[in-house]
Amino acid sequence: MGRKGRNMEQYNTKKKQGASETFSGIADRVLMGAVAVLLCAFWAGCGEKDRALAIPLGEMVAEDVRAEAVGGDSDGMESASAQNQEQAVDSASGAVAQTMIYVHVCGAVNAPGVVEIPEGSRGQTALEAAGGFAEDAAEDAVNLAEVLRDGMQLYFPTKEESVAWIMQQQAESEGLINLNTAGVEALCTLPGIGEAKARAIVAYREANGAFERVEDIMQVSGIKESAYNKIKDLVVVK
Fold first, then answer.
1. Residue range 136-189, pLDDT digits in tens
2. Per-domain boundaries in the chain
3. What is the average pLDDT value for the chain, to the nearest integer?
4. In whole angstroms, what is the distance from residue 84 CA to residue 89 CA?
5. Helix, strand, coil shares of the chain as percentages rounded to 5?
6. Which fold is adopted by the domain 160-238?
7. C-alpha 8: how far from chain center
8. Is the CB of residue 177 less than 8 Å from the CB of residue 235?
9. Which residues on neighbouring strands pair with residue 235, listed in sequence order?
10. I want to staple 107 with a disulfide (CB 3.0 to 4.6 A). Which of 123, 155, 191, 200 is the partner?
């Protein structure tokens, strides 16, 4: 082989080596680029994975928090509901547990005695609590619409008693004392009439019957004209 041939061979060899080196460089760069892409993808994938994990964890935490909050609210609502129910019961109990009063119902009723009735009740309620009118009751003698008070006595007279009863009520309404129906206590309110004279008046009435005139009071032992003059305008005979 001549010199020229050797030169060509060396040239071709160098050319091949350069091409090989060029290709190798390109391959290296491509490989490095691919590695870089893979690394980026890996890192990106890790980041996405982290985020993917972070979201459910965050949601789970949020759900837990919400669950606790809902649970707390539920307990609070149940507690509030229970309190409202207790208040409703208390309110209902307060409505049922009225203030009661006691009234002595006597006279011409079927079940005389002390009755317990709500405060503010009228005579009709007390009458019903005492079993209603007896057969011989004077049903119109007592005002059943009157509002009653604790501790009072409500007397229902018989038909026979009603005449004297009504007269006594009228006399009392006029401020006069009926000598035929007044008791010792009422008679003691008269000027000059003490307990002894009051008892004497009642005893005379029981022994001799009703007074026909006011002047007849002077027939009672111990009551003379001077005593009569003090009371004549304050008493009545009916």
1. 999 988 899 999 999 999 999 898 887 766 666 666 666 788 888 888 988 999
2. 1-97, 98-157, 160-238
3. 75
4. 9
5. 60, 10, 25
6. DNA polymerase; domain 1 (1.10.150)
7. 121
8. yes
9. 177
10. 155
- Give residue-wise pLDDT tens across range 49-82: 444 444 444 444 445 545 454 454 555 555 555 5
3-class secondary structure, 130: coil
From 111, 116, 105, select the one nearest 154 (Cα to Cα). Answer: 105
pLDDT at res. 57? 43
Strands 100-107 and 113-118: antiparallel
Q: Do residues 157 and 181 touch, judged by C-beta distance below 8 A?
A: no
Half-sphere exposure of 209 (CA within 13 A, CB side): 2
Retrieve residue 3's tokens. 């010199």
What token pair was written down for 65? 């928090």
The answer to whether residue 210 scores a pLDDT higher than 70 is yes
